[in-house]
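fyi for ur records
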Amino acid sequence: MKLISEVTIKSFRSISDARLRDLGNFTAIAGLNNSGKSNLLRALNAFFSGYTEPLVPLSVDDDYFRPHLRKKKAKKISIGVKFSLPTSFRFRKGIEGVKKLLGGNEFEILKQWDRSRATPRYFLNGKEVSLEDRQKIEQFLSLVSFRYIPNRVLPLEVVRKEHQSLRDVLVRRLARRGKSDEALFNTLQTKSAELIHSLSKRVNAACPDVADVRLATPASWREMIFAFGYKLHSGNEEMDDTAQGSGIQSYLMLETLSLIDRDYFKQFGWKQAAIWAVEEPESSLHSSLEARVADFLAGISTDSSSRLQVIATTHSDLMLQYADEAVFAEKQDGATSFVGQKDKRTVLERAAQAGISRWIHPILASPLDPVVLVEGKSDSMFLQQAVRIIRPAARINICCLEELEGGKTTGGVDRMVQYVKANVAALRARVLTAPVIVVLDWDSASKKVEFEKYLKECKACEVLTWPDTTFNPRLDETFHGIERHMSDRIIDAAGNGFIATRADGTKVIAKKDIDRFKKAVMKGFEQGITETDIQHAKPFVEEILKAAKI
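which gave:
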């Protein structure tokens, strides 16, 4: 969920004057060491809590932009956040005045610190607010749970600090006490198992040697005052979480915080949303667990039921791949700037060129998500939108060669054959749960055997062909490729002026007009398609999703 869309910072640490726009549900910020990317997270921490780091309050003398310290002007630090509240955000009864003050779902709150004041000045949409309205702004900010998780934090210390929250959840779930002490503690163990069931399954998937995770709950009143933690099962052994490596501890920490921040807002101070500012979540993780964590952060922040936004600094190509917004931080003349990119590939390549992260083969990107390889850009655009209509929450990478290779690469079935032949080794490396599905146009069906010859040893690969059963019956064979499966609305809008209709109602197009028609179709895709537009194609799109194990 996207709660904040922009951040403006002036004169804070290495940031002289920077604005970061278009924050996403999960924003990953890449940059060299000492480029200042973590200062963005510290600035957000100061905005929400007044502290730059745990137990360290913001100080104008210590945190002011160093190159300007000698300038003879008033020293001020300002941090502004633009909020874009989702429709699910609620203001509890009794604070209607807060909602009225904010004036809508989009607004900017700015705090400004200087040496002359013990507390910061508050601004709403550029205008300073009164002391009374400042209190209302604080009431609004109290509805948001902000977590700053530094890279050097000890994961289990964070988990231990949250034990009271999880205890409260367990108490609430014990709606009725058992008839005896034994029944009570049996119920406690059952409810605790239900509480972390999803957490346990994901930990097992990420770390197969950990068969099970359970809360270390008491078995008697004597044990009622317990040191909160987890018990992990491996084979016939049960071990404390403290005996695990730092990678598993980090994963348990993120899962625990998610359990609290996503599912129990109303029980904990009526929190309406959560924002995580995480430094290098990939630290101490091996590659496969790193992918799991990246996928986990993407999942919890984009889930339709979630009210959680993640902003993370990273040196990991996997974090950049799974984030929906990628940003590059760089320092020039001592000042940090942030460059956002709609095209994550650009940030990935820039990070690899700078030596920040490793180069990743395009076909191995997003290793936990299935890949659908199609012949051209129009196929990719149509399928991406069709999948969003049929399965909005589906995590799937639909791409063509132009998107995989960039530059002036062209599509077409012959070029696809060459690509698959040249990249068989990379295709074999895909895991079975994230297969590669090659989708051929109906008029390329004769090439299927050739693809299957190269992919016969790739257990995670499959070749599908658009069938004639999903043709629009009003289009004849002069319509090539994916266009023949599209709705009358798309065809008529794109072919206005150069599509003819026979006496029987069948539409035809001249060969000389095909390129112009295809360009018009793609332009129409930019405006979006509807469920009616996929009425013919829907059965085959569902077949693709089934092959992709979605």
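Residues 4-142+272-353 form a domain with the Rossmann fold fold (CATH 3.40.50.300). thats all i got for now
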